[in-house]
Amino acid sequence: MDKKPCNSSSQDPEVRKGPWTMEEDLILINYIANHGEGVWNSLAKAAGLKRTGKSCRLRWLNYLRPDVRRGNITPEEQLLIMELHAKWGNRWSKIAKHLPGRTDNEIKNYWRTRIQKHIKQAENYHHHQSNNQLHHPHHELSTTNSDQTTSNDNTNNNYQQASTSCHVSTTTMPDHHHHHHHHPMDAYSPTSFHHHPPPPLNNDLFPTHQFPTALDHSSTCTSQENNYWSMEDLWSNMQLLNGD
DNA sequence: AAGGGATTCAACCGCCTTTAT
DNA sequence: TATAAAGGCGGTTGAATCCCT
């Protein structure tokens, strides 16, 4: 019947989902600064966040941690990713350990959005070239797993050849992608606040102070590149949070 | 200038493993 | 030791954004 698998106890079944607000980020950063990370479920409660422990952990690890590396993937990093993926398949966290500051999520996303399609293109190309040859039964680089990963050795060098030969190579990889890669601390896009409902502050947490005043445009830049909250803004809000 | 398809990426889910009781 | 809870992982999703006509 009413099985409530996780998140037992504690009334307050309200668990927030979706994008993190700046307020939530600040609470999390602040809490971890004071108490350290780990024990995520209790951390979430103690900090007053209406999030699951998992969600807090993910947010911290992938985004808020101070040592998350900012900026676009470099050609060197890309090469490494390609090599390691060729070796290990979709073992993202394992791969990530070899790219300091990069998260498994980021690498996974990068792979799927930036590399995979090139490889597929290259494969198609080869395919057509060697039409009379036997057709590879799709190395299936993605989609429905077919799990190269779980097969433990999975030396799926399947596409290794493709990746080295196609123009995914660093020299031709245009880097054309600019912007994005906001990362941890500077990642508070003011525009996002306009797309989301006003900060859902509960006054238990913020009895006297209110961030939103700091969220007006006075302190934001308009250029795309700098269209994020500055460190100063963050800090001042953080101090407000701390009650000075 | 506006509409719409394509792309990106933060964050979710379910499953499996590890740790705690 | 057995069971439950937490942590970790990889696949997937969809809102926001980009890009093209």
Automatic annotation (TrEMBL):
Gene3D superfamilies (alphabetical): Homeodomain-like
Regions crossing the membrane: none
Domain Myb-like: 12-64, 65-115
Biased amino acid composition, Polar residues: 159-173
Biased composition (Low complexity): 142-158
Subunit structure, interactors included: Interacts (via N-terminus) with TIFY10A/JAZ1, TIFY5A/JAZ8 AND TIFY3A/JAZ11.
Name used for this protein in its record: Myb-related protein 305-like
Organism: Senna tora
